[in-house]
Design a protein that fits this description.
Structural class: mainly alpha
Radius of gyration: 45 Å
Largest sheet: none
Order of helices and strands: HHHHH
Number of helices: 5
Shape: elongated
Strand content: under 5%
Oligomer: single chain
Helix content: 55-70%
């Protein structure tokens, strides 16, 4: 296996590993955040049977934005979804901190509540970087041409017979036919008979 194939397989392995890590962290963050945000909604006097909708809205937005950021890794349009992802994660982090403090679990619980959503943001960005590098790992025509062409500074010019172009054949002169001008007879006065009134 040559070096290019090893690098390509290594890049694929790194991307798939990053995908699995993001999925695992995203699932863990969703479960922990779901429980905390649901309890926070109940504390805010949301009916218990509807409290689950709040974490679905917040974390569902995060999941949708995460998928969009990964799918648009090579596009400038990912900027919008990156902002949505950051906003959703901020709401989730704030909700988890508020839940920890309102529940009386203290500052340590609030700090722990930040870790999962923050890690999701960091890992998602790392995966997007890996996906953007998938085209740069493949050799480009320019790099292939540079590898094939000899370096003129190191290698002497090969002995190649110069290409000599044959001279263009001379064209035969064009014959022009010259006819002498025709002589014109001089104009002479002509007597015109004038009718008279005689018989």
């Amino acid at each position: 296996m040559d070096t290019a194939n090893q690098q390509s397989s290594g890049m694929r392995w790194a991307r798939w590993s990053a995908v699995l890590i993001v999925l695992a962290i995203g699932g863990a963050a969703f479960v922990l955040s779901f429980a905390a945000l649901r309890d926070l909604a109940v504390m805010a006097h949301t009916p218990t049977r509807l409290a689950w909708l709040f974490p679905v809205i917040v974390d569902g937005t995060i999941i949708q934005a995460t998928i969009a950021v990964l799918a648009l890794a090579d596009s400038d349009e990912r900027t919008f979804f990156t902002r949505v992802l950051v906003a959703g994660a901020t709401v989730s982090i704030g909700g988890n901190i508020a839940h920890a403090l309102v529940s009386g679990h203290g500052v340590l619980a609030a700090i722990l509540a930040v870790i999962a959503p923050a890690a999701l943001l960091v890992d998602t960005h790392g995966l997007a970087v890996l996906l953007r590098t998938r085209n740069t790992a493949a050799p480009t025509p320019t790099s292939i041409a540079a590898a094939v062409e000899p370096d003129s500074a190191d290698d002497p010019a090969p002995d190649v017979a110069p290409v000599v172009s044959a001279p263009a054949p001379a064209l035969a002169p064009m014959h022009t036919f010259h006819t002498p001008p025709r002589t014109v007879a001089p104009l002479l006065p002509v007597a015109v008979p004038i009718p008279t009134g005689g018989n």
